[in-house]
Amino acid sequence: MEKLLLLPVFGQVLLTSIVMILMGKRRIAAAKNKDISISAFKTMNLTGANEQVIATSRNFDNQFQMPMLFLFSLLFILQSGLADLAYVIMACGYLLLRVWHTIVHIGSNNVRLRFNVFLASCALLWLIWLRFAWQLLVL
Question: For a disulfide at 23, which of 56, 63, 71, 79, Cβ 3.0-4.6 Å?
């Protein structure tokens, strides 16, 4: 079960890497088109950049917020020897929600849908942490 629980970890790393590459491509294209100046990257002042550049940059930043709590939860679960099918299913569900959030954020950027998907991913992450705390502290 431990190896299966690592699959969503690898998926999160892959998602972050894909967003990073897309962000780089969009930033380079914006600089080549003179939408933003190269000097803007000194302070990451993306004022004047198009919505795609900003949304992709924000999404990349997002990959180091709640997903870090996700990665830590799985590491702690693995370290505690509590990995089971329920955690694998919840972790895969969380990863799928994060992928969906990313697609919306760097695609249509429908704010209401993006927010609802974000809340669903947070709820699932809290469920992972609550179950882990219960197993560790109560059982």
Answer: 56
